[in-house]
Amino acid sequence: MSTGESQQRQHDLLRLTSMRMPYGKYKGRVLADLPGHYLGWFAREGFPTGELGRLLALLYEIDHNDLRGLLHPVRQSGDVR
């Protein structure tokens, strides 16, 4: 993995713990706190375009594979480095 890819992945994890859902039933909730069933709905119906959709898809994979624990150190430190 290149340095650029590694930095992007770190940035994505940080965004999952800081970015808030901009609309819908869970508007205002931090993406990392969205429930699995809501992420599953997006997986079935289609993720939004852009950064939000990319991050929701990533979070869906994290949740689906029971890896939400990966986000705990990010939350605690506020940074992934």
From TrEMBL:
InterPro entries in the record: QSregVF_b (IPR024530)
Name this polypeptide is given: Cytoplasmic protein
UniProt source species: Undibacterium squillarum
